[in-house]
Write a structure and sequence with these properties.
The chain has five helices and no strands. By secondary structure, the chain is mostly helical. The chain has one domain. It is globular. The model is unreliable at 1-7 (pLDDT under 50).
Protein backbone atom coordinates (compact mmCIF):
# COMPACT_ATOMS: atom_id res chain seq x y z
CA UNK A 1 0.00 0.00 0.00
CA UNK A 2 2.99 2.28 -0.15
CA UNK A 3 5.12 3.53 -3.03
CA UNK A 4 7.98 1.21 -2.13
CA UNK A 5 5.95 -1.89 -1.43
CA UNK A 6 3.68 -1.71 -4.45
CA UNK A 7 5.90 -0.28 -7.14
CA UNK A 8 9.45 -1.04 -6.02
CA UNK A 9 9.27 -4.63 -7.25
CA UNK A 10 8.13 -3.72 -10.76
CA UNK A 11 10.53 -2.79 -13.55
CA UNK A 12 7.79 -0.49 -14.90
CA UNK A 13 4.89 1.04 -12.99
CA UNK A 14 1.59 -0.70 -13.71
CA UNK A 15 -0.65 1.20 -16.12
CA UNK A 16 -2.83 3.69 -14.30
CA UNK A 17 -0.87 3.60 -11.04
CA UNK A 18 -0.83 6.98 -9.33
CA UNK A 19 0.73 7.08 -5.87
CA UNK A 20 -0.72 10.49 -4.99
CA UNK A 21 -4.24 9.43 -5.98
CA UNK A 22 -3.89 6.19 -4.02
CA UNK A 23 -2.65 7.98 -0.91
CA UNK A 24 -5.35 10.67 -1.16
CA UNK A 25 -8.15 8.12 -1.62
CA UNK A 26 -6.96 5.97 1.29
CA UNK A 27 -6.63 9.02 3.53
CA UNK A 28 -10.21 9.98 2.64
CA UNK A 29 -11.42 6.42 3.28
CA UNK A 30 -9.72 6.32 6.69
CA UNK A 31 -11.49 9.53 7.71
CA UNK A 32 -14.89 8.42 6.36
CA UNK A 33 -14.86 10.91 3.48
CA UNK A 34 -14.57 8.38 0.62
CA UNK A 35 -17.56 6.36 -0.51
CA UNK A 36 -16.84 3.12 -2.31
CA UNK A 37 -18.98 1.91 -5.18
CA UNK A 38 -22.17 -0.09 -4.53
CA UNK A 39 -20.47 -3.51 -4.86
CA UNK A 40 -17.76 -2.63 -2.34
CA UNK A 41 -19.33 -0.19 0.14
CA UNK A 42 -21.36 -2.78 2.10
CA UNK A 43 -18.39 -5.13 2.61
CA UNK A 44 -17.21 -5.47 6.20
CA UNK A 45 -15.26 -7.74 8.51
CA UNK A 46 -15.59 -7.11 12.24
CA UNK A 47 -12.98 -9.82 12.91
CA UNK A 48 -10.26 -8.01 10.92
CA UNK A 49 -9.58 -5.02 13.13
CA UNK A 50 -6.19 -3.49 13.92
CA UNK A 51 -6.94 -2.30 17.44
CA UNK A 52 -3.51 -0.74 17.92
CA UNK A 53 -4.38 1.98 15.38
CA UNK A 54 -6.65 5.02 15.88
CA UNK A 55 -8.97 3.66 13.18
CA UNK A 56 -8.98 -0.11 13.71
CA UNK A 57 -10.85 -0.63 10.43
CA UNK A 58 -7.95 0.52 8.20
CA UNK A 59 -7.10 -3.00 7.04
CA UNK A 60 -10.67 -3.57 5.90
CA UNK A 61 -10.64 -0.19 4.15
CA UNK A 62 -7.37 -1.14 2.44
CA UNK A 63 -8.94 -4.39 1.23
CA UNK A 64 -11.99 -2.52 -0.07
CA UNK A 65 -9.76 -0.03 -1.87
CA UNK A 66 -7.71 -2.80 -3.49
CA UNK A 67 -10.84 -4.62 -4.64
CA UNK A 68 -12.40 -1.49 -6.09
CA UNK A 69 -9.32 0.00 -7.71
CA UNK A 70 -7.44 -3.11 -8.85
CA UNK A 71 -9.38 -6.36 -8.57
CA UNK A 72 -12.68 -5.32 -10.18
CA UNK A 73 -11.13 -3.51 -13.16
CA UNK A 74 -8.41 -6.11 -13.83
CA UNK A 75 -9.44 -9.57 -12.73
CA UNK A 76 -12.06 -11.83 -14.26
CA UNK A 77 -12.64 -13.54 -10.90
CA UNK A 78 -13.34 -10.29 -9.01
CA UNK A 79 -16.66 -11.66 -7.72
CA UNK A 80 -14.70 -14.22 -5.67
CA UNK A 81 -12.98 -11.41 -3.74
CA UNK A 82 -16.36 -9.91 -2.90
CA UNK A 83 -17.98 -13.25 -2.05
CA UNK A 84 -15.01 -14.19 0.15
CA UNK A 85 -14.33 -10.72 1.55
CA UNK A 86 -13.89 -11.95 5.12
CA UNK A 87 -11.02 -14.17 4.07
CA UNK A 88 -9.44 -11.60 1.76
CA UNK A 89 -9.69 -8.69 4.21
CA UNK A 90 -8.34 -10.88 7.00
CA UNK A 91 -5.30 -11.62 4.86
CA UNK A 92 -4.83 -7.94 4.02
CA UNK A 93 -5.06 -7.03 7.72
CA UNK A 94 -2.57 -9.67 8.78
CA UNK A 95 0.05 -8.63 6.26
Amino acid sequence: MTEGATVGGFANKPDGYDFVATYTTLEAAYSGQHKFGPRVEPLSNSEAQLTLLPNPNVGVLNAKYLIESFVIPNMENSKAFIDNFASYSGTVCST
